[in-house]
């Protein structure tokens, strides 16, 4: 059984939950209805989704607007990231992934700081700097909100 294509009303924001984003066209869900994006007609949506690092369970909002020349423009924004149920194996893996990404951010920041101060970024400098940044950031931030790519953070 094939899924129907997603349709949009002009200038009406539509919230869609990502069901499958492994291969384009993605499968999405609005309410209880599942559908697929149209391969060619919705390719502009794919271009806007790519830098967002979307994953299964994320919720996006798409607004279609008709231009004066008759073409359709899509505005896409992330509404919510998928958060697994607490105290599940999926939640533990999700939290671990967030911690690893945060440590990677701290290492990248330590290297950048070394270079900005004309220092060679050696493991003797980067290791302690990154570890200190990681410890302080874990005290200051809720690690649950640090899931996602570095450019995806709300600050």
Description:
There is one protein chain. This protein has 155 residues and is of the alpha+beta class. Helices cover 34% and strands 21% of the residues. A 5-stranded antiparallel beta sheet has the order 3-2-1-4-5, covered by helices on one side. Strand 1 and strand 2 form a beta hairpin. Helix 2 crosses helix 3. It is elongated and about 60 Å long. The model has no long low-confidence stretch (mean pLDDT 87).
Strand order of the largest sheet: 3-2-1-4-5
> What Rg is obtained from the alpha carbons, in whole angstroms?
20 Å
Instruction: Tally the beta strands.
Output: 5
> Helix tally?
3
Q: What pattern of helices and strands is seen along the backbone?
A: EEEHEEHH
Helix/strand-derived category reads alpha+beta
- Average pLDDT across residues? 87
Query: How many strands, which pairing sense, and closed or not: the largest β-sheet?
Result: 5 strands, antiparallel
Regions with little confidence, pLDDT below 50 for 5+ residues = none
- Assign a percent range to the helix content: 25-40%
Q: What percentage of amino acids are in beta strands?
A: 15-25%
Shape from CA axes?
elongated
Distance linking N and C termini: 43 Å
Question: Secondary structure elements and their pairing?
Answer:
Elements: E1 14-20, E2 27-30, E3 33-36, H1 43-49, E4 59-66, E5 72-80, H2 89-116, H3 123-140
Antiparallel strand pairs: 1-2, 1-4, 2-3, 4-5
Short description:
This protein is α+β, with helices and mostly antiparallel strands and 155 residues long. It has helices at residues 43-49, 89-116, 123-140; strands at 14-20, 27-30, 33-36, 59-66, 72-80.
């Amino acid at each position: 059984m094939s899924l129907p294509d997603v349709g949009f009303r002009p200038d009406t924001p539509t919230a869609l939950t990502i069901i499958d984003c492994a291969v384009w066209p993605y499968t999405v869900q609005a309410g209880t209805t599942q559908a697929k994006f149209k391969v060619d007609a919705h390719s502009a949506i794919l271009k806007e989704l790519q830098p967002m690092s979307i994953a299964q369970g994320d919720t996006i909002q798409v607004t279609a607007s008709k231009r004066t020349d008759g073409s359709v423009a899509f505005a896409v924004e992330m509404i919510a990231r998928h958060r697994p149920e607490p105290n599940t194996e999926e939640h533990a893996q999700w939290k671990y992934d967030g911690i690893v990404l945060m440590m990677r951010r701290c290492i990248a920041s330590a290297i950048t700081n070394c270079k900005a101060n004309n220092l060679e970024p050696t493991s003797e400098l980067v290791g302690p700097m990154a570890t200190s940044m990681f410890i302080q950031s874990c005290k200051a931030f809720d690690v649950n909100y640090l899931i996602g790519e570095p450019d995806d953070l709300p600050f």
